Amino acid sequence: MKRLRWQILLILITFIAITALLVLQPPTTQVIVSQPSKGGSYSEALIGQISRLNPLLDWNNETDRSIDRLLYSALFRVDERGIPQPDLAESWGVSPEGNLYNVTLRANARWHDGTPITSDDVLFTIDLIRNGFSLFPKDVQELWQKVEVRKLDDHNLKFVLPEPFAPFLDYLSFGILPRHLLGTIPPDQLANADFNLHPIGSGPFAFDRFIIENDTIQGVVLKAFEGYYQSKPYLEEISFRTYPDGRAALQAFRNGTVMGIASIPPDILDEALAEPGLALYSTRLPQVTLVLLNLNNPEVPFFQNAAVRQALLLAINREYLIQKALKGQGILADSPILPGSWAYYDGIEPIPYQPEEAEAILRKEGYLLPSGETVRAKEGQRLAFTLLYPDDAIHTEIARLLVADWQRVGIAVTPQAVTLEKLMAEHLTPRAYQAALIDINFSRTPDPDPYPFWHQSEATGGQNYSQWDNRSASEYLEQARVTTDMGLRQRLYRNFQIIFQRELPALLLYYPVYTYGVSRQVQNVQIPPLYAPEDRFAFLLTWSMNTRRVLIETTPTTIP
Protein backbone atom coordinates (compact mmCIF):
# COMPACT_ATOMS: atom_id res chain seq x y z
CA MET A 1 0.00 0.00 0.00
CA LYS A 2 2.85 2.30 0.88
CA ARG A 3 4.53 1.46 -2.43
CA LEU A 4 1.31 2.31 -4.31
CA ARG A 5 1.14 5.74 -2.66
CA TRP A 6 4.67 6.50 -3.88
CA GLN A 7 3.74 5.52 -7.44
CA ILE A 8 0.66 7.74 -7.33
CA LEU A 9 2.76 10.60 -6.00
CA LEU A 10 5.36 10.13 -8.75
CA ILE A 11 2.66 10.16 -11.43
CA LEU A 12 1.16 13.31 -9.94
CA ILE A 13 4.54 15.11 -9.91
CA THR A 14 5.19 14.11 -13.52
CA PHE A 15 1.75 15.35 -14.58
CA ILE A 16 2.31 18.71 -12.85
CA ALA A 17 5.75 19.10 -14.49
CA ILE A 18 4.41 18.37 -17.98
CA THR A 19 1.51 20.74 -17.45
CA ALA A 20 3.89 23.49 -16.32
CA LEU A 21 6.08 22.99 -19.39
CA LEU A 22 3.09 23.20 -21.70
CA VAL A 23 1.90 26.37 -20.00
CA LEU A 24 5.32 28.01 -20.10
CA GLN A 25 6.08 27.03 -23.71
CA PRO A 26 5.40 29.93 -26.11
CA PRO A 27 2.48 29.32 -28.44
CA THR A 28 3.26 28.61 -32.09
CA THR A 29 1.50 30.09 -35.07
CA GLN A 30 1.18 28.49 -38.47
CA VAL A 31 1.81 30.93 -41.31
CA ILE A 32 1.52 30.42 -45.05
CA VAL A 33 4.35 32.13 -46.96
CA SER A 34 5.30 32.34 -50.62
CA GLN A 35 8.67 30.95 -51.67
CA PRO A 36 10.34 30.87 -55.10
CA SER A 37 9.72 27.74 -57.12
CA LYS A 38 11.21 26.37 -60.29
CA GLY A 39 9.77 27.37 -63.65
CA GLY A 40 9.23 30.33 -65.91
CA SER A 41 10.87 31.86 -68.95
CA TYR A 42 12.60 35.25 -68.93
CA SER A 43 13.38 37.22 -72.10
CA GLU A 44 15.72 40.20 -72.42
CA ALA A 45 16.51 42.79 -75.08
CA LEU A 46 20.21 43.25 -75.90
CA ILE A 47 21.62 46.18 -77.88
CA GLY A 48 23.85 44.93 -80.70
CA GLN A 49 24.27 41.69 -82.60
CA ILE A 50 25.24 38.14 -81.75
CA SER A 51 28.55 37.21 -83.33
CA ARG A 52 30.44 34.30 -81.74
CA LEU A 53 29.47 32.66 -78.45
CA ASN A 54 33.02 31.97 -77.33
CA PRO A 55 34.50 33.58 -74.18
CA LEU A 56 37.90 34.05 -75.85
CA LEU A 57 36.35 35.92 -78.78
CA ASP A 58 33.72 38.13 -77.12
CA TRP A 59 36.00 40.89 -75.79
CA ASN A 60 34.68 43.57 -78.14
CA ASN A 61 31.04 42.42 -78.21
CA GLU A 62 28.92 43.23 -75.16
CA THR A 63 26.00 41.22 -76.57
CA ASP A 64 28.10 38.06 -76.80
CA ARG A 65 29.56 38.65 -73.33
CA SER A 66 26.09 38.85 -71.76
CA ILE A 67 25.15 35.46 -73.22
CA ASP A 68 28.52 33.86 -72.52
CA ARG A 69 28.27 34.83 -68.85
CA LEU A 70 25.45 32.28 -68.52
CA LEU A 71 26.91 29.65 -70.87
CA TYR A 72 30.45 29.39 -69.51
CA SER A 73 32.20 29.06 -66.18
CA ALA A 74 35.50 30.51 -65.03
CA LEU A 75 37.91 29.35 -62.36
CA PHE A 76 37.01 32.48 -60.38
CA ARG A 77 34.28 35.14 -60.42
CA VAL A 78 34.43 38.40 -58.49
CA ASP A 79 31.83 39.31 -55.89
CA GLU A 80 30.16 42.70 -55.41
CA ARG A 81 33.29 44.11 -53.72
CA GLY A 82 35.59 42.96 -56.51
CA ILE A 83 37.05 40.08 -54.49
CA PRO A 84 37.67 36.86 -56.49
CA GLN A 85 35.58 33.90 -55.34
CA PRO A 86 35.91 30.27 -56.51
CA ASP A 87 33.62 29.23 -59.37
CA LEU A 88 34.92 26.17 -61.22
CA ALA A 89 37.68 26.20 -58.63
CA GLU A 90 36.74 24.40 -55.43
CA SER A 91 39.66 25.77 -53.44
CA TRP A 92 42.96 27.55 -53.91
CA GLY A 93 46.11 28.53 -52.06
CA VAL A 94 49.07 30.86 -52.52
CA SER A 95 52.63 30.48 -51.27
CA PRO A 96 54.02 32.89 -48.65
CA GLU A 97 56.21 34.42 -51.38
CA GLY A 98 53.13 35.16 -53.49
CA ASN A 99 54.37 33.58 -56.72
CA LEU A 100 52.90 30.04 -56.51
CA TYR A 101 49.18 29.33 -56.74
CA ASN A 102 47.53 25.92 -56.37
CA VAL A 103 43.97 25.51 -57.65
CA THR A 104 41.67 22.51 -57.16
CA LEU A 105 38.77 22.05 -59.59
CA ARG A 106 35.30 20.92 -58.54
CA ALA A 107 35.01 17.17 -59.02
CA ASN A 108 31.30 17.44 -59.91
CA ALA A 109 31.70 20.05 -62.68
CA ARG A 110 30.44 18.88 -66.08
CA TRP A 111 30.21 20.28 -69.58
CA HIS A 112 26.72 20.65 -71.00
CA ASP A 113 27.26 17.38 -72.91
CA GLY A 114 27.96 15.55 -69.63
CA THR A 115 31.74 15.26 -70.02
CA PRO A 116 33.71 15.97 -66.80
CA ILE A 117 35.76 19.19 -66.67
CA THR A 118 39.44 18.53 -66.02
CA SER A 119 42.76 20.30 -65.75
CA ASP A 120 43.30 19.61 -69.46
CA ASP A 121 40.47 22.02 -70.32
CA VAL A 122 42.11 24.79 -68.30
CA LEU A 123 45.52 24.15 -69.86
CA PHE A 124 43.98 24.09 -73.34
CA THR A 125 42.21 27.44 -72.82
CA ILE A 126 45.31 29.12 -71.39
CA ASP A 127 47.42 27.87 -74.31
CA LEU A 128 44.98 29.53 -76.73
CA ILE A 129 45.30 32.84 -74.86
CA ARG A 130 49.09 32.51 -74.55
CA ASN A 131 49.50 31.89 -78.28
CA GLY A 132 47.36 34.80 -79.41
CA PHE A 133 44.16 32.95 -80.37
CA SER A 134 41.90 35.20 -78.30
CA LEU A 135 40.76 38.80 -78.58
CA PHE A 136 42.04 39.67 -75.11
CA PRO A 137 44.37 42.70 -74.85
CA LYS A 138 48.01 42.07 -75.61
CA ASP A 139 49.14 42.49 -72.01
CA VAL A 140 46.88 39.58 -70.98
CA GLN A 141 48.54 37.39 -73.60
CA GLU A 142 51.98 38.54 -72.42
CA LEU A 143 51.14 37.75 -68.79
CA TRP A 144 50.25 34.15 -69.69
CA GLN A 145 53.45 33.81 -71.70
CA LYS A 146 55.32 34.42 -68.43
CA VAL A 147 53.24 32.12 -66.23
CA GLU A 148 54.06 28.40 -66.08
CA VAL A 149 51.00 26.18 -65.62
CA ARG A 150 51.54 22.63 -64.36
CA LYS A 151 48.96 19.86 -64.33
CA LEU A 152 49.26 17.97 -61.04
CA ASP A 153 46.34 15.65 -61.79
CA ASP A 154 42.89 15.81 -63.39
CA HIS A 155 41.62 18.29 -60.80
CA ASN A 156 44.71 20.10 -59.51
CA LEU A 157 46.89 22.77 -61.14
CA LYS A 158 49.91 24.78 -60.10
CA PHE A 159 50.58 28.28 -61.46
CA VAL A 160 54.17 29.52 -61.22
CA LEU A 161 54.59 33.29 -61.59
CA PRO A 162 57.98 34.88 -62.31
CA GLU A 163 57.31 37.33 -59.46
CA PRO A 164 54.50 38.08 -57.00
CA PHE A 165 51.47 39.67 -58.65
CA ALA A 166 48.55 40.36 -56.30
CA PRO A 167 45.82 40.76 -58.99
CA PHE A 168 46.58 37.30 -60.44
CA LEU A 169 43.27 35.65 -59.51
CA ASP A 170 41.44 38.28 -61.58
CA TYR A 171 43.28 36.92 -64.61
CA LEU A 172 41.65 33.53 -63.96
CA SER A 173 38.15 34.90 -64.56
CA PHE A 174 37.98 34.00 -68.28
CA GLY A 175 35.55 31.34 -69.52
CA ILE A 176 37.00 27.84 -69.86
CA LEU A 177 36.63 26.01 -73.20
CA PRO A 178 36.16 22.23 -73.73
CA ARG A 179 39.33 20.58 -75.02
CA HIS A 180 37.49 17.40 -76.05
CA LEU A 181 35.43 19.43 -78.56
CA LEU A 182 37.97 21.99 -79.77
CA GLY A 183 41.32 20.26 -79.32
CA THR A 184 41.37 18.86 -82.86
CA ILE A 185 40.57 22.21 -84.52
CA PRO A 186 43.65 24.16 -85.70
CA PRO A 187 43.86 27.23 -83.43
CA ASP A 188 43.97 29.61 -86.40
CA GLN A 189 40.55 28.27 -87.45
CA LEU A 190 38.95 28.67 -84.04
CA ALA A 191 37.35 32.02 -84.91
CA ASN A 192 35.32 30.38 -87.68
CA ALA A 193 34.56 27.10 -85.91
CA ASP A 194 30.97 25.81 -85.88
CA PHE A 195 31.34 25.58 -82.09
CA ASN A 196 30.95 29.38 -81.82
CA LEU A 197 27.34 29.05 -83.03
CA HIS A 198 26.61 25.77 -81.21
CA PRO A 199 28.46 26.31 -77.94
CA ILE A 200 28.95 23.76 -75.18
CA GLY A 201 29.82 25.40 -71.88
CA SER A 202 29.54 24.56 -68.19
CA GLY A 203 27.51 27.50 -66.86
CA PRO A 204 24.04 27.48 -65.28
CA PHE A 205 22.35 27.68 -68.70
CA ALA A 206 22.97 25.68 -71.88
CA PHE A 207 22.51 26.67 -75.51
CA ASP A 208 19.19 25.48 -76.95
CA ARG A 209 18.60 27.28 -80.26
CA PHE A 210 18.88 30.54 -82.15
CA ILE A 211 15.90 32.73 -82.92
CA ILE A 212 16.01 33.12 -86.72
CA GLU A 213 13.96 35.75 -88.56
CA ASN A 214 14.44 36.68 -92.22
CA ASP A 215 17.41 34.29 -92.38
CA THR A 216 19.34 36.25 -89.73
CA ILE A 217 20.05 35.55 -86.07
CA GLN A 218 17.74 37.77 -84.01
CA GLY A 219 18.22 36.07 -80.67
CA VAL A 220 19.09 32.96 -78.71
CA VAL A 221 17.30 30.62 -76.30
CA LEU A 222 19.07 29.06 -73.30
CA LYS A 223 17.78 26.25 -71.07
CA ALA A 224 18.64 25.70 -67.41
CA PHE A 225 21.40 23.08 -67.10
CA GLU A 226 20.28 20.35 -64.71
CA GLY A 227 23.86 19.16 -64.23
CA TYR A 228 25.14 22.52 -62.98
CA TYR A 229 27.60 22.08 -60.11
CA GLN A 230 26.20 24.85 -57.89
CA SER A 231 22.64 25.83 -56.90
CA LYS A 232 20.24 25.32 -59.78
CA PRO A 233 18.44 28.38 -61.16
CA TYR A 234 14.71 28.78 -60.59
CA LEU A 235 14.20 30.01 -64.15
CA GLU A 236 13.90 27.18 -66.68
CA GLU A 237 14.60 29.26 -69.76
CA ILE A 238 16.22 32.55 -70.73
CA SER A 239 16.01 34.07 -74.18
CA PHE A 240 17.79 37.10 -75.58
CA ARG A 241 16.64 39.20 -78.54
CA THR A 242 18.84 41.79 -80.22
CA TYR A 243 17.87 45.35 -81.16
CA PRO A 244 19.73 48.25 -82.79
CA ASP A 245 19.20 50.76 -79.96
CA GLY A 246 17.56 51.40 -76.62
CA ARG A 247 14.40 52.88 -78.10
CA ALA A 248 13.74 49.75 -80.17
CA ALA A 249 14.36 47.63 -77.07
CA LEU A 250 11.87 49.70 -75.06
CA GLN A 251 9.26 49.26 -77.78
CA ALA A 252 9.84 45.50 -77.65
CA PHE A 253 9.07 45.60 -73.94
CA ARG A 254 5.89 47.56 -74.59
CA ASN A 255 4.86 44.99 -77.19
CA GLY A 256 5.40 42.14 -74.75
CA THR A 257 8.20 40.63 -76.83
CA VAL A 258 10.73 40.89 -73.99
CA MET A 259 10.57 41.20 -70.21
CA GLY A 260 13.84 43.03 -69.66
CA ILE A 261 16.11 45.64 -71.25
CA ALA A 262 19.85 45.14 -70.81
CA SER A 263 20.65 48.85 -70.65
CA ILE A 264 18.51 51.98 -70.33
CA PRO A 265 20.46 54.89 -71.89
CA PRO A 266 19.78 58.46 -70.67
CA ASP A 267 17.83 59.39 -73.81
CA ILE A 268 14.99 56.95 -72.99
CA LEU A 269 15.20 57.07 -69.19
CA ASP A 270 12.10 59.24 -68.72
CA GLU A 271 10.04 56.96 -70.96
CA ALA A 272 11.27 53.87 -69.14
CA LEU A 273 10.41 55.40 -65.77
CA ALA A 274 6.86 55.94 -67.02
CA GLU A 275 6.35 52.22 -67.73
CA PRO A 276 4.36 50.85 -64.76
CA GLY A 277 5.35 47.23 -65.42
CA LEU A 278 9.08 47.93 -65.70
CA ALA A 279 11.25 48.02 -62.57
CA LEU A 280 14.53 49.93 -62.98
CA TYR A 281 17.70 48.96 -61.14
CA SER A 282 20.71 51.27 -61.08
CA THR A 283 24.31 50.76 -60.06
CA ARG A 284 27.64 52.25 -60.99
CA LEU A 285 29.57 51.07 -64.01
CA PRO A 286 33.26 50.04 -63.80
CA GLN A 287 34.23 53.34 -65.40
CA VAL A 288 35.20 56.90 -64.54
CA THR A 289 34.86 59.98 -66.73
CA LEU A 290 37.61 62.53 -66.20
CA VAL A 291 39.62 65.34 -67.71
CA LEU A 292 43.24 64.38 -68.33
CA LEU A 293 45.77 67.18 -68.04
CA ASN A 294 49.11 66.86 -69.83
CA LEU A 295 51.43 67.73 -66.97
CA ASN A 296 54.51 67.62 -69.18
CA ASN A 297 53.37 69.86 -72.05
CA PRO A 298 55.38 73.13 -72.16
CA GLU A 299 52.47 74.85 -73.94
CA VAL A 300 50.43 74.66 -70.72
CA PRO A 301 52.96 75.03 -67.88
CA PHE A 302 50.23 76.04 -65.41
CA PHE A 303 48.98 72.43 -65.33
CA GLN A 304 52.09 71.58 -63.32
CA ASN A 305 50.75 73.72 -60.47
CA ALA A 306 48.56 71.61 -58.14
CA ALA A 307 46.77 74.74 -56.91
CA VAL A 308 45.68 75.59 -60.46
CA ARG A 309 44.46 72.03 -60.93
CA GLN A 310 42.44 72.35 -57.74
CA ALA A 311 40.91 75.59 -58.99
CA LEU A 312 39.95 73.91 -62.26
CA LEU A 313 38.02 71.24 -60.36
CA LEU A 314 36.41 73.68 -57.92
CA ALA A 315 35.06 75.62 -60.90
CA ILE A 316 33.14 72.64 -62.32
CA ASN A 317 29.49 72.24 -61.32
CA ARG A 318 29.63 68.47 -61.56
CA GLU A 319 26.17 67.85 -60.08
CA TYR A 320 24.57 70.09 -62.71
CA LEU A 321 26.70 68.42 -65.39
CA ILE A 322 25.39 64.98 -64.35
CA GLN A 323 21.79 66.18 -64.36
CA LYS A 324 22.05 68.08 -67.63
CA ALA A 325 24.16 65.72 -69.75
CA LEU A 326 23.26 62.36 -68.18
CA LYS A 327 19.79 62.96 -66.72
CA GLY A 328 21.18 62.08 -63.33
CA GLN A 329 22.82 58.85 -64.46
CA GLY A 330 26.16 59.47 -62.76
CA ILE A 331 27.80 59.54 -59.33
CA LEU A 332 30.28 62.25 -58.32
CA ALA A 333 33.78 60.80 -58.58
CA ASP A 334 36.30 61.37 -55.81
CA SER A 335 38.79 58.53 -56.32
CA PRO A 336 40.52 56.69 -59.18
CA ILE A 337 39.41 53.49 -57.39
CA LEU A 338 35.76 52.55 -57.85
CA PRO A 339 33.35 52.94 -54.93
CA GLY A 340 32.14 49.56 -53.76
CA SER A 341 35.57 48.04 -54.26
CA TRP A 342 37.31 46.62 -51.21
CA ALA A 343 40.16 49.08 -51.91
CA TYR A 344 38.03 52.23 -52.09
CA TYR A 345 38.79 54.71 -49.29
CA ASP A 346 35.64 56.51 -48.18
CA GLY A 347 37.53 58.98 -46.00
CA ILE A 348 38.33 61.24 -48.97
CA GLU A 349 36.68 64.65 -48.69
CA PRO A 350 34.79 65.37 -51.93
CA ILE A 351 35.75 68.59 -53.68
CA PRO A 352 32.58 70.72 -53.96
CA TYR A 353 31.51 73.25 -56.56
CA GLN A 354 33.01 76.53 -55.28
CA PRO A 355 33.71 78.96 -58.15
CA GLU A 356 34.48 81.80 -55.74
CA GLU A 357 37.15 79.67 -54.04
CA ALA A 358 38.53 78.77 -57.48
CA GLU A 359 38.89 82.45 -58.35
CA ALA A 360 40.55 83.16 -54.99
CA ILE A 361 43.12 80.40 -55.59
CA LEU A 362 43.88 81.67 -59.08
CA ARG A 363 44.39 85.20 -57.79
CA LYS A 364 46.70 83.90 -55.07
CA GLU A 365 48.73 82.04 -57.71
CA GLY A 366 49.09 85.27 -59.68
CA TYR A 367 46.53 84.65 -62.43
CA LEU A 368 44.73 87.98 -62.65
CA LEU A 369 42.18 89.53 -64.99
CA PRO A 370 43.80 92.44 -66.86
CA SER A 371 41.60 95.49 -67.22
CA GLY A 372 38.93 94.90 -69.85
CA GLU A 373 39.93 91.24 -70.34
CA THR A 374 37.95 88.07 -69.65
CA VAL A 375 40.87 85.64 -69.50
CA ARG A 376 43.27 85.44 -66.57
CA ALA A 377 46.99 85.77 -67.20
CA LYS A 378 50.26 85.63 -65.29
CA GLU A 379 53.42 87.24 -66.64
CA GLY A 380 51.98 87.18 -70.14
CA GLN A 381 50.86 83.52 -69.93
CA ARG A 382 47.11 83.34 -70.55
CA LEU A 383 45.14 80.72 -68.65
CA ALA A 384 43.92 79.07 -71.84
CA PHE A 385 44.06 75.57 -73.31
CA THR A 386 42.45 73.20 -75.82
CA LEU A 387 40.13 70.44 -74.62
CA LEU A 388 39.88 67.35 -76.84
CA TYR A 389 36.82 65.11 -76.50
CA PRO A 390 35.13 62.19 -78.31
CA ASP A 391 32.64 63.39 -80.91
CA ASP A 392 29.54 61.61 -79.56
CA ALA A 393 26.50 63.48 -78.21
CA ILE A 394 27.10 62.95 -74.48
CA HIS A 395 30.77 63.97 -74.49
CA THR A 396 29.92 66.96 -76.69
CA GLU A 397 27.42 68.19 -74.10
CA ILE A 398 29.84 67.58 -71.23
CA ALA A 399 32.57 69.52 -73.03
CA ARG A 400 30.17 72.43 -73.59
CA LEU A 401 29.31 72.56 -69.89
CA LEU A 402 32.98 72.39 -68.86
CA VAL A 403 33.93 75.24 -71.19
CA ALA A 404 31.11 77.40 -69.77
CA ASP A 405 32.08 76.69 -66.14
CA TRP A 406 35.74 77.53 -66.71
CA GLN A 407 34.87 80.63 -68.68
CA ARG A 408 33.00 81.98 -65.63
CA VAL A 409 36.21 82.03 -63.58
CA GLY A 410 38.37 83.53 -66.32
CA ILE A 411 39.76 80.43 -68.03
CA ALA A 412 39.55 80.24 -71.83
CA VAL A 413 39.04 76.74 -73.23
CA THR A 414 38.81 75.78 -76.88
CA PRO A 415 36.78 72.57 -77.35
CA GLN A 416 37.86 70.25 -80.16
CA ALA A 417 35.90 67.13 -81.11
CA VAL A 418 37.73 64.12 -82.55
CA THR A 419 36.85 60.48 -83.07
CA LEU A 420 37.71 58.22 -80.16
CA GLU A 421 40.16 56.29 -82.33
CA LYS A 422 41.96 59.49 -83.33
CA LEU A 423 41.97 60.76 -79.76
CA MET A 424 43.76 57.62 -78.63
CA ALA A 425 46.12 57.08 -81.58
CA GLU A 426 47.10 60.64 -82.48
CA HIS A 427 46.85 62.49 -79.18
CA LEU A 428 46.91 60.43 -75.98
CA THR A 429 49.38 57.73 -77.04
CA PRO A 430 51.99 60.20 -78.39
CA ARG A 431 51.11 62.66 -75.56
CA ALA A 432 50.21 65.29 -78.19
CA TYR A 433 47.47 67.12 -76.33
CA GLN A 434 46.84 69.73 -73.64
CA ALA A 435 43.66 68.44 -71.96
CA ALA A 436 41.31 65.60 -72.89
CA LEU A 437 37.88 64.46 -71.75
CA ILE A 438 37.89 60.65 -71.65
CA ASP A 439 36.40 57.58 -70.00
CA ILE A 440 38.62 55.01 -68.30
CA ASN A 441 37.02 51.58 -68.31
CA PHE A 442 38.10 49.13 -65.59
CA SER A 443 36.06 46.14 -66.77
CA ARG A 444 39.09 44.22 -68.09
CA THR A 445 40.01 43.29 -64.51
CA PRO A 446 37.99 43.98 -61.36
CA ASP A 447 41.14 44.22 -59.25
CA PRO A 448 41.48 47.88 -58.22
CA ASP A 449 45.15 48.08 -59.22
CA PRO A 450 45.61 51.64 -60.63
CA TYR A 451 49.26 51.01 -61.56
CA PRO A 452 48.79 51.15 -65.38
CA PHE A 453 47.25 54.63 -65.26
CA TRP A 454 49.23 56.45 -62.57
CA HIS A 455 52.64 54.81 -62.01
CA GLN A 456 55.75 56.73 -63.10
CA SER A 457 56.94 53.92 -65.37
CA GLU A 458 53.73 54.17 -67.44
CA ALA A 459 54.29 57.85 -68.30
CA THR A 460 56.26 56.87 -71.41
CA GLY A 461 54.63 54.31 -73.65
CA GLY A 462 52.02 53.26 -71.08
CA GLN A 463 48.59 54.49 -70.04
CA ASN A 464 49.75 57.23 -67.66
CA TYR A 465 48.62 59.79 -70.23
CA SER A 466 48.88 62.69 -67.76
CA GLN A 467 52.56 61.80 -67.25
CA TRP A 468 52.13 62.19 -63.50
CA ASP A 469 55.48 61.72 -61.80
CA ASN A 470 55.00 61.20 -58.07
CA ARG A 471 57.46 58.87 -56.40
CA SER A 472 55.49 58.37 -53.18
CA ALA A 473 52.32 57.42 -55.05
CA SER A 474 54.29 55.06 -57.30
CA GLU A 475 55.88 53.32 -54.31
CA TYR A 476 52.48 52.59 -52.81
CA LEU A 477 51.32 51.13 -56.13
CA GLU A 478 54.45 48.99 -56.41
CA GLN A 479 54.05 47.55 -52.92
CA ALA A 480 50.33 46.89 -53.39
CA ARG A 481 51.06 44.85 -56.52
CA VAL A 482 53.30 42.31 -54.84
CA THR A 483 51.61 41.60 -51.50
CA THR A 484 48.71 39.17 -51.21
CA ASP A 485 47.83 40.56 -47.76
CA MET A 486 44.51 42.28 -48.54
CA GLY A 487 44.63 44.37 -45.37
CA LEU A 488 48.05 45.73 -46.31
CA ARG A 489 46.96 46.35 -49.91
CA GLN A 490 43.95 48.26 -48.60
CA ARG A 491 46.18 50.54 -46.51
CA LEU A 492 48.58 51.11 -49.41
CA TYR A 493 45.73 52.05 -51.75
CA ARG A 494 44.29 54.35 -49.09
CA ASN A 495 47.59 56.22 -48.97
CA PHE A 496 47.68 56.40 -52.76
CA GLN A 497 44.16 57.86 -52.89
CA ILE A 498 45.06 60.51 -50.31
CA ILE A 499 48.02 61.63 -52.45
CA PHE A 500 45.87 61.59 -55.60
CA GLN A 501 43.26 63.81 -53.96
CA ARG A 502 45.93 66.26 -52.83
CA GLU A 503 47.77 66.40 -56.15
CA LEU A 504 44.84 66.01 -58.60
CA PRO A 505 46.86 64.79 -61.61
CA ALA A 506 43.50 64.55 -63.41
CA LEU A 507 40.04 66.02 -62.81
CA LEU A 508 37.64 63.24 -61.87
CA LEU A 509 34.07 64.05 -62.93
CA TYR A 510 31.74 61.09 -62.36
CA TYR A 511 31.22 57.34 -62.38
CA PRO A 512 28.54 56.51 -64.98
CA VAL A 513 25.43 54.74 -63.73
CA TYR A 514 24.11 51.59 -65.38
CA THR A 515 20.32 51.31 -65.42
CA TYR A 516 18.74 47.93 -66.04
CA GLY A 517 15.05 47.32 -66.69
CA VAL A 518 13.25 44.12 -65.64
CA SER A 519 9.56 43.28 -65.63
CA ARG A 520 7.92 43.42 -62.22
CA GLN A 521 6.78 39.85 -62.84
CA VAL A 522 10.34 38.72 -62.12
CA GLN A 523 11.04 38.39 -58.40
CA ASN A 524 14.20 38.59 -56.25
CA VAL A 525 16.15 40.69 -58.76
CA GLN A 526 19.32 42.19 -57.31
CA ILE A 527 22.00 44.14 -59.18
CA PRO A 528 25.43 44.51 -57.51
CA PRO A 529 28.05 47.15 -58.32
CA LEU A 530 29.25 46.20 -61.78
CA TYR A 531 32.78 45.31 -62.82
CA ALA A 532 31.40 44.49 -66.28
CA PRO A 533 27.85 44.95 -67.64
CA GLU A 534 27.29 41.18 -67.64
CA ASP A 535 27.74 41.21 -63.85
CA ARG A 536 24.04 42.12 -63.70
CA PHE A 537 23.54 38.34 -63.76
CA ALA A 538 25.61 37.78 -60.61
CA PHE A 539 22.51 36.82 -58.59
CA LEU A 540 20.50 35.35 -61.47
CA LEU A 541 20.20 31.95 -59.78
CA THR A 542 17.85 33.53 -57.20
CA TRP A 543 15.55 35.20 -59.76
CA SER A 544 12.14 33.60 -60.05
CA MET A 545 8.78 33.94 -61.76
CA ASN A 546 6.85 31.22 -59.97
CA THR A 547 6.07 30.84 -56.27
CA ARG A 548 4.70 28.09 -54.05
CA ARG A 549 2.80 28.45 -50.80
CA VAL A 550 4.53 26.85 -47.81
CA LEU A 551 3.15 26.32 -44.30
CA ILE A 552 5.66 27.20 -41.60
CA GLU A 553 5.42 27.45 -37.83
CA THR A 554 6.55 30.59 -36.05
CA THR A 555 6.89 31.46 -32.39
CA PRO A 556 5.67 34.97 -31.52
CA THR A 557 8.22 37.15 -29.78
CA THR A 558 7.13 38.10 -26.26
CA ILE A 559 7.81 41.72 -25.39
CA PRO A 560 8.27 42.20 -21.62
Automatic annotation (TrEMBL):
Q: Which SUPFAM superfamilies match?
A: Periplasmic binding protein-like II
Question: Taxonomically, which superkingdom?
Answer: Bacteria
**Any GO BP annotation:** peptide transport
UniProt cross-references to InterPro entries, sorted A to Z: Peptide/Ni-bd, SBP_5, SBP_5_dom
| Gene3D superfamilies on file | Dipeptide-binding Protein, Domain 1, Dipeptide-binding Protein, Domain 3, Periplasmic binding protein-like II
Q: What is a single molecular function from GO for this protein?
A: peptide transmembrane transporter activity
- What does the UniProt keyword field contain? Signal, Transport
* One Pfam family of this chain: SBP_bac_5
A single Gene Ontology CC annotation of this entry is: ATP-binding cassette (ABC) transporter complex
Solute-binding protein family domain boundaries: 84-458
Q: Please state which protein family the record places this protein in.
A: Belongs to the bacterial solute-binding protein 5 family.
Entry protein name: Extracellular solute-binding protein
State the organism of origin: uncultured Chloroflexota bacterium
Q: What is the lineage of its organism?
A: Bacteria, Bacillati, Chloroflexota, environmental samples
